[in-house]
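Saturday, quiet lab. Running sequence design on the structure tokens for the scaffold JK sent over.
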């Protein structure tokens, strides 16, 4: 049976979700796999007695793989890393756009990087600035539920230093970030960002406004994507989507959330 197919005799409930073609967000999506889920599944074979009680790492890994298989092909294997030099990014104070971000952090990106990501979407705001692309996918609710149950359990284990916390600490030590050490909590953070973005259903009115823009763009004679300028209503829906992703990545931090959303 192919990964993502339903078990014979069952029908998986699937829901539409919006996914950003954004390297910073994709780093968290793929980080949930490489930094947490895959190491946990490996530990289930090597040292099952050290696993937190009540978790099934193999089922969680399978659920993530099914979500990944539902993404557009270009997003499935793209595992970018955060900015290599946060200090350099934070010191960059001159901005050419009228809505300069309030600040930069690990996810702060140079404007040229944002533009590189956006090129190819063909989506432009009413002022002509090209947007980071957004994709519509169908995901199985059971896969999201499986990962949410794992995250809830791991969060309790880390917070209460319950059985299995030591294993999570060792996994974190073995997978440091490019900019410093990781922790058990930060590893869980990748999974939280994934679920906080893909779990909630898009507002029906926003999805209706954005749906015409989610098909692959037509190509010009030169091979470039044809421009599709958003209406005022579509732009407002796109901005709501961008801010929702930013709030998932930087919950409770208005400054970093605004900087993240500005890149869209």
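Result came back. Writing it out in full:
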């Amino acid at each position: 049976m192919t990964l993502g197919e339903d078990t014979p005799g069952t029908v998986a409930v699937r829901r539409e979700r919006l996914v950003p073609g954004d390297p910073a967000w994709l780093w968290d999506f793929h980080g949930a796999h490489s930094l947490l889920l895959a190491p946990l599944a490996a530990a289930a074979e090597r040292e099952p007695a050290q696993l937190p009680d009540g978790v099934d790492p193999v089922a969680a890994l399978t659920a993530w793989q099914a979500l990944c298989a539902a993404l557009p092909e270009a997003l499935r294997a793209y595992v970018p890393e955060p900015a290599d030099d946060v200090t350099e990014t934070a010191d960059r104070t001159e901005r050419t756009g009228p809505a300069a971000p309030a600040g930069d952090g690990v996810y702060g990106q140079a404007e040229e990087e944002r533009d590189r990501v956006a090129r190819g979407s063909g989506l432009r705001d009413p002022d002509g600035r090209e947007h980071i692309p957004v994709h519509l996918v169908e995901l199985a609710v059971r896969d999201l539920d499986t990962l949410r149950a794992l995250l809830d359990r791991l969060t309790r284990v880390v917070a209460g230093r319950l059985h299995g916390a030591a294993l999570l600490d060792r996994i974190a030590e073995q997978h440091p970030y490019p900019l410093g050490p990781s922790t058990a909590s930060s590893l869980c953070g990748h999974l939280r960002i994934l679920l906080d973005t893909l779990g909630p259903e898009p507002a029906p009115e926003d999805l209706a406004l954005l749906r015409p823009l989610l098909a692959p763009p037509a190509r010009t004679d030169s091979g470039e994507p044809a421009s599709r300028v958003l209406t005022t209503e579509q732009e407002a829906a796109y901005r709501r989507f961008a801010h929702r992703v930013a709030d998932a990545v930087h919950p409770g931090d208005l400054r970093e959330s605004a900087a993240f959303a500005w890149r869209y």
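Notes for JK: DSSP finds eleven helices and four strands in the chain. The beta strands are 14-20, 123-124, 134-140, 228-229. Ask whether to fix the surface positions before the next round.
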